[in-house]
Amino acid sequence: MTSDAQHPPQARVVQLGGLMPFVREWLEERYAAPVLADLAQPAGVEVAVVGGGAPAGAAEMDSLPDLRAIVNFGVGYDNVDVAEASRRGIVVSNTPDVLTDAVADLAAFLVVDVLRGITAADRFVRSGAWARGEKFPLTRDVRGAVVGVLGLGRIGAAAAERLEAFGAEVHYHSRSPKDVAWTYHASPVELASASDVLVVLTPGGAGTEHLVDAAVLDALGPEGYLVNVARGSVVDEVALVAALEDGRIAGAGLDVFADEPHVPEALLARDDVVLLPHVGSATTQTREAMGRVVLDNVDAFLERGELVTPV
Length: 311
Ligand code: 8YV
What we know:
- By secondary structure, this protein is of the alpha/beta class.
- The protein has two domains: about 15-100 and about 285-305, NAD(P)-binding Rossmann-like Domain (Rossmann fold, 3-Layer(aba) Sandwich), CATH 3.40.50; about 100-275, 3-Layer(aba) Sandwich (Rossmann fold).
- The protein is built from eleven helices and eleven strands.
- It has helices spanning about 20-30, 60, 80-85, 100-115, 120-125, 155-165, 190-195, 215-220, 235-245, 265-270, 285-305; strands spanning about 15, 45-50, 70-75, 90-95, 145-150, 170-175, 185, 195-200, 225-230, 250-255, 275.
- The strands form two sheets. It has a seven-stranded parallel β-sheet, with helices on both faces. Strands 1-2-3-4 form a four-stranded parallel β-sheet.
- Helix 4 crosses helix 6 and helix 7 (about 190-195) packs parallel to helix 8.
- The longest helix is centred in the C-terminal third of the chain and has 21 residues, at about 285-305.
- The radius of gyration is 22 Å and the shape is elongated.
- The protein binds 2-keto-D-gluconic acid.
- 2-keto-D-gluconic acid binds near residues 18, 51, 278, 280 and 281.
């Protein structure tokens, strides 16, 4: 095929938003994949790659008449309108498994942090309080704490194993009981009332929106902590801020928010919350592994019309 600046080769792969620079480079090198805005000729594009929660909905699908696959960089795909895609015969993939350990690590770290006050203690030292002779308050053992995992999928189970190694007692709620030794609760409210720390690890999307509401937070209670490494949409953030302000829960560890990268002003000032910039999978090794799953899906789809990790 010949090409020049006026007649670039017909793209088969396009980049939608939210992709990390190294993934964009890989897509450019391997498939000469342009970004949607630079696409000269939309006809013929079969695969769209998206990441970072950027939308892949009806508008993006409308602009790509020959689209047949959406490849998502990320295990969560609430940014993709899967129902609309399947109506159009478009298949969707994500990046499961390769990020399980990194996200489960971060979930466990946040549980340890909210109980032991690690980042709060760091702020205490930096503020000069220790040097002034103040004493950092006693915290709480992880051993013996009841950790309630809300959503016992791959990441939830991996987080539970880590927390068990710390001596925590694991309880969980999922749509149905699993074949595990941990204690099942039939609803999020029941799980929260049994838990010292409630760890949110469900998928995002309409099915779980505000699953953690004021009633769940009240069930968690004034000694209870919330940890969320799933999606901000799963927690009613207004109810969370109110519960913290009223002392109806003890604190929170949050890696995800309703309107990222915006964090409610009220949370920024509080010492009883740990705030992270959505870094559950953000290690070099894990992000590269996710990138390779993306390429495997694009390759498999272009070669044989199949995805390796369809949702
Ligand atoms: C990333 C994530 O923030 O995989 C997910 O669902 O939330 C994270 O790994 C993001 O998707 C990377 O683009």
